[in-house]
Amino acid sequence: MTYRVKVSERGSGAPSSPIRKLVPLADGAKSKGRHVYHLNIGQPDIPTPEPMLHAAQEYKGPVLSYGPSGGLPEFINALAGYYESCAISLRKNQILATTAASEALLFALAAVTDPGDQVLIPDPLYANYLGFASILGVTVTPAVCSPEDGYKIPPPEILDKLCGPRCKAMLLCNPGNPTGRVTSSDELRAIGDWAKARNIFLIGDECYREFCYEGSAPPSVLNLEGCEDLTIMTDSISKRFSACGARVGCLVSRNEEVMATVMKFAQARLCPPTLGQLMGIKAFTETPPSYYQKIIDTYRERRDLLCEKLSEMPGVSYRKPEGAFYIMATLPVSDSEDFTRWMLTDFHLNNKTVMVAPGAGFYATKGLGAKEVRIAYVLELVHLETAMKVLAAGLRAFSDR
């Protein structure tokens, strides 16, 4: 029987994730007995803090029931205390718990845009921004940033040319995924002034706040004086506490209309994960300050090793990241997705191979990123060093085909 029903244009046009779309090939490699080093996804291997695990394991309620749409009061209090320690003073009604930062970003974009509106995003960008925009029928306009000038965000006069009459927001990830760039206080101030002059929202994705290796954590968009009504911040416990599966984050804004709007979205999805919030409470109230310094030192060591090994590979170039735990590297290949596929289907070194994320999926600008990959340095040093040996061998073998 021939069916006439079709999925929506929105659905058929949605982009595949460059991070996950080749997972079936990785599964195929594993089925052959090969070990796959996953450098494609930001899944930290640092143990989740024990108090968080205990919170989930020790839940004793007779029923795991719905919680408040905006989040458990205890979790909101814990978030408020954490942000106070980051010099971000908030009222409880300015914080809404979400199903990780993904839902927070979706809520933020839905609250400030209508179908056909425009959002300006520095390019390269976190690939899922494109997916969220596609779901909402929003146009992403890329502000191209180049590794040659350190992925610096274009100046206001360039942003003005990109910002059309239906531009409603600029979305900035700081520290940046996938580039690892940290936007400085002066740059952020200039961006805030520009957004205020254009009367558009500034959305800050700040999931990697602590992951800075060359100085202190960057300022939050929430602390831009005079921009209180136009700033929205999204955050998550996933990376900070190595708890990606907890799926808990938040949306924060001092704009009362924004918060009333996202609460309606929150009510429609009922409530964020209860167990994840209980884990989050423990994370923010029982994790000592020394924990943050330990993870910073750990990822700095990984970054430095990765850069050292990439520098030894002929034809590979990159810009050393200042934060987060990703690097965009240009490889001596014409198509990085073809290379990534080949590594999973045809290559191994001592029964080991590597999975990276093809770079083109991290660009909204068509034609960019074809030779690039995003590498997540989320493996301990001994495994990361082995993975780099496998990658180097793969590049040599690929060029000799």
Question: What sort of overall outline do the alpha carbons produce when their principal axes are compared?
Answer: globular
**Major beta sheet summary:** 7 strands, mixed
Q: Mean pLDDT across all residues, rounded?
A: 96
Percent in strands = 15-25%
Helical fraction equals 25-40%
Q: Compute the separation of the termini in Å.
A: 45 Å
Put simply, the count of helices is 13
- H/E element sequence: HHEHHEHEHEHEHEEEHHHEEHEEEH
The oligomeric status of these chains comes to single chain
Q: What's the gyration radius in Å? A: 21 Å
Strand order of the largest sheet: 2-8-7-6-5-3-4
Indicate the structural class: alpha/beta
* Unreliable stretches covering 5 or more consecutive residues: none
Number of strands: 13
Describe the structure.
The structure is a single chain. This protein has 401 residues and is an alpha/beta fold. Helices cover 39% and strands 15% of the residues. The strands form 3 sheets. A 7-stranded mixed β-sheet has the order 2-8-7-6-5-3-4, sandwiched between helices. Strand 9 and strand 10 (326-330) form a beta hairpin. Helix 3 (50-57) packs antiparallel against helix 10 and helix 4 packs parallel to helix 10 (274-286). It is globular.
Write the layout of secondary structure elements.
Elements: H1 9-12, H2 23-31, E1 35-38, H3 50-57, H4 73-85, E2 95-98, H5 100-112, E3 118-123, H6 128-136, E4 139-144, H7 156-162, E5 167-173, H8 185-198, E6 201-205, E7 231-236, E8 249-253, H9 256-268, H10 274-286, H11 289-311, E9 317-318, E10 326-330, H12 336-345, E11 352-355, E12 357-358, E13 372-376, H13 381-399
